[in-house]
């Protein structure tokens, strides 16, 4: 027989052992120790049956646990050695008259070493078929148990079981009380009872914590009533009186002041008990809901307030806009709506970091609130987008005056990490009911006006006009058309030569100009799709296309031995915002094997303006050091000051063609030529169309020129032939005499239809 089989034979288990063990767990009391009543039962059994030992035990899975005894210790007995293992299987008293003669027990340690001869055990029965332990008698001599003695032992076992059940009930009640007390602490719920007849008040321990009272203070009805009545809620004050006098149910959340002066929110529930037609008692509960109120306030803040600036967010803005429009409709007044964006805010984040950007947004929020005050709503809708609702305005002039103050405040520089920077803003405005009475459409119209302000050069306010909506729709169609054409590779580069006006008149270079081979409108110049360059996505793609095409074409000309001089490429402000323009250009040149000295970058004056001037300057300096020439395009038409000529590495000044059309502009052209010469810059005149203009420029000693007089923009394939014919003219020929140069006629004719 194996050890496991021997163990099973010596320690039998009932069929419902798991059920029985589950019950045993309920009587393995945590506080342990011997119970006085059970000890007395053991003493009574010892005396009544005249035995040396009496036990009350529990039969666990592995051992017999002594709960009470008389005449022996309380050490556990291994279940394999406990005769009670058989007793718990029985519905009645289990008797072993002489253990030495019983084959089941004659080898038992208690029988061999402790001289146990007699055993009688009455099961402690929880319910029929389930016994958790025994009341057992042990003697050192064989004995016989009569029927009467068997009955009395069973009765004592019943008394022991009743005592165990009583003890379990008491412990369960204590446990429940502890759990209830813990629950009230966790939920911060206190209970109370008011005897209306004698004004006595009793309440639970948690009430002291909620009201922060000293536990030595006895609660009174007057204190409780004053506490609730001190709430600012007038309805709560009336409800307290109605509760006590009329028995009406009380259910209110009120703000109280505790005994220590703290403000708390509590929820009080109370109901009346009636006796003889009148209120006898009031029973209720109080829950501290301060954290819940704070949590709700935080949720409301997160739901309706911008986390960075604390201004109303988009959700609260829409709610207030709808409310303002509804009120204006009732009072027949007007509402002004301003949409405001910071100009080139992304550049702040990209160059100074998001900390600087966050600081700037907070300062802008403060300045906007300072201008518009409490009667208007200043909201942050996201990113660098702000909105202002101005109810009760009379005319659009009210909006313009406020925005002018904002623009003035924005000019004040901001300091961050030892650096000063300023920023401008673009704004669009619309009015209700003048421009729409629907909140969604009014907002859309203000957005359209903001968009027009950006297109007009930023740093300005533009009011909505009905024609603007149509323009936006047309622009959207244009953007879609441009995107489709980019995918279909319909954008090409044409090249227009730049000619030296010195005696040895030569082509010094070419300007790369974008053309759109539109499927239905023919060949279009950038004037037809200039807004595409302002779009971040399209502008970036067009810029990349121009660089890739021009550099690839320069490589082919170099391979073919075509002496083209330099190629000029126009840069937009959008291209500088990538933050890595310098690396991109130099990498493209290196990959194609094109020397940087072959490239000219043309930048307009407006690109230098605004906060991004420092970033643009840094990029151009790095490119200039690498050997690339820098040209200031359309000089005199933008917003740049003369200080930019010294601040930035400018090699070439390009005089805008508008200055060559009017006779009154001759002094301006002469001044620019003189200024450029004194600063050591090459001056290039654009838009030269006739010999007279050419003669004047040569007389002014302008360095170079370009325009239809020499050649219209041409496809790359036509450039080599043009350069050969241009060089092939007679050496002594004077360009001023070529009012209609025969050698250029063919190029002029072929390009007439392609340049709109």
UniProtKB/TrEMBL annotation:
Residues 475-727 form the EAL domain. It comes from the Bacteria. Residues 333-466 form the GGDEF domain. Pfam families: EAL, GAF, GGDEF. SMART domains: EAL (SM00052), GAF (SM00065), GGDEF (SM00267). Residues 250-301 form the PAC domain. Transmembrane segments: none annotated. SUPFAM superfamilies: EAL domain-like, GAF domain-like, Nucleotide cyclase, PYP-like sensor domain (PAS domain). This is Diguanylate cyclase (GGDEF)-like protein.
């Amino acid at each position: 027989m194996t050890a496991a089989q021997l163990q099973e034979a010596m320690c039998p288990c009932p069929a419902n052992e798991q059920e029985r063990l589950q019950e045993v767990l309920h009587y393995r009391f945590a506080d342990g120790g011997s119970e006085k009543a059970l000890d007395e039962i053991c003493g009574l059994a010892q005396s009544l049956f005249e035995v040396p030992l009496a036990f009350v035990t529990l039969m666990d899975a592995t051992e017999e646990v002594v709960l009470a005894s008389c005449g022996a210790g309380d050490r556990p007995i291994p279940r394999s050695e406990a005769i009670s293992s058989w007793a718990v299987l029985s519905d009645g008293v289990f008797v072993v008259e002489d253990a030495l003669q019983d084959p089941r027990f004659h080898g038992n340690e208690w029988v061999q070493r402790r001289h146990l001869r007699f055993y009688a055990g009455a099961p402690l029965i929880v319910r029929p078929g389930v016994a958790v332990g025994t009341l057992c008698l042990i003697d050192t001599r064989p004995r016989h148990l009569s029927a009467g003695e068997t009955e009395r032992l069973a009765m004592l076992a019943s008394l022991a079981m009743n005592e165990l059940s009583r003890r379990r009930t008491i412990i369960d009640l204590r446990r429940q009380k502890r759990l209830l007390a813990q629950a009230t602490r966790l939920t911060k719920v206190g209970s109370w009872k008011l005897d209306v007849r004698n004004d006595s008040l009793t309440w639970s321990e948690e009430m002291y914590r909620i009201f922060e009272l000293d536990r030595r203070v006895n609660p009174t009805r007057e204190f409780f009533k004053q506490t609730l009545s001190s709430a600012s809620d007038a309805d709560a004050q009336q409800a307290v009186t109605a509760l006590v006098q009329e028995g009406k149910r009380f259910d209110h959340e009120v703000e109280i002041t505790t005994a220590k002066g703290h403000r708390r929110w509590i929820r009080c529930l109370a109901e009346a008990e009636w006796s003889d037609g009148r209120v006898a008692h009031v029973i209720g509960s109080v829950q501290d809901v301060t954290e819940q109120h704070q949590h709700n306030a935080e949720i409301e803040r997160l739901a309706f307030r911008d986390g960075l600036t604390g201004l109303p967010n988009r959700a609260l803005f829409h709610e207030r806009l709808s409310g303002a429009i509804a009120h204006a409709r009732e009072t027949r007044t007007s509402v002004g709506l301003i949409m405001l964006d910071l100009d080139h805010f992304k550049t702040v984040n990209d160059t100074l970091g998001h900390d600087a950007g966050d600081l700037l947004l907070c300062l802008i929020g403060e300045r906007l609130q300072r201008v518009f005050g409490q009667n208007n709503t200043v909201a942050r809708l996201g990113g660098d987008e702000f909105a202002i609702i101005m109810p009760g305005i009379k005319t659009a002039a009210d909006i313009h005056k406020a925005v002018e103050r904002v623009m003035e405040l924005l000019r004040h520089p901001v300091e961050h990490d030892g650096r000063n920077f300023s920023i401008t803003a673009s704004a669009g405005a619309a009015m209700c009911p003048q421009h729409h009475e629907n909140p969604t459409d009014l907002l859309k119209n203000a957005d359209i006006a903001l968009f027009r302000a950006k297109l007009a050069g930023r740093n300005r306010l533009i009011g909505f006009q009905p024609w603007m909506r149509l323009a936006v729709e047309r622009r959207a169609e244009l953007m879609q058309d441009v995107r489709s054409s980019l995918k279909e590779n319909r954008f090409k580069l044409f090249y227009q030569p730049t000619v030296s006006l010195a005696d040895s008149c030569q082509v010094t270079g070419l300007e790369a100009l974008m053309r759109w081979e539109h499927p239905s409108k023919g060949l279009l110049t950038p004037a037809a799709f200039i807004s595409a360059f302002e779009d971040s996505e399209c502008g970036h793609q067009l810029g990349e296309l121009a660089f890739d095409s021009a550099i690839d074409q320069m490589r082919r000309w170099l391979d073919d031995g075509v002496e083209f001089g330099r190629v000029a490429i126009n840069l937009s402000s959008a291209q500088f915002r990538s933050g890595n323009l310098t690396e991109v250009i130099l990498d493209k040149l290196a990959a194609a094997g094109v020397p940087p000295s072959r490239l000219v970058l043309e930048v307009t004056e407006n690109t230098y303006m605004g906060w991004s001037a420092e970033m643009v300057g840094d990029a151009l300096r790095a490119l200039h050091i690498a050997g690339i020439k820098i040209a200031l395009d359309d000089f005199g038409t933008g917003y740049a000051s003369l200080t930019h000529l010294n601040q930035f590495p400018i090699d070439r000044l390009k005089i805008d063609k508008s200055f060559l059309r009017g006779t009154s502009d001759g002094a301006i052209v002469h001044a620019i030529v003189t200024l450029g010469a004194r600063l050591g810059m090459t001056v290039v005149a654009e838009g030269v169309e006739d010999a007279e203009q050419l003669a004047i420029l040569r007389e002014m000693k302008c360095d170079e020129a370009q325009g239809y007089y020499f050649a219209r923009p041409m496809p790359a394939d036509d450039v080599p032939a043009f350069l050969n014919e241009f060089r092939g003219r007679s050496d002594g020929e004077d360009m001023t005499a070529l009012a209609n140069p025969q050698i250029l006629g063919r190029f002029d004719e072929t390009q007439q239809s392609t340049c709109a």
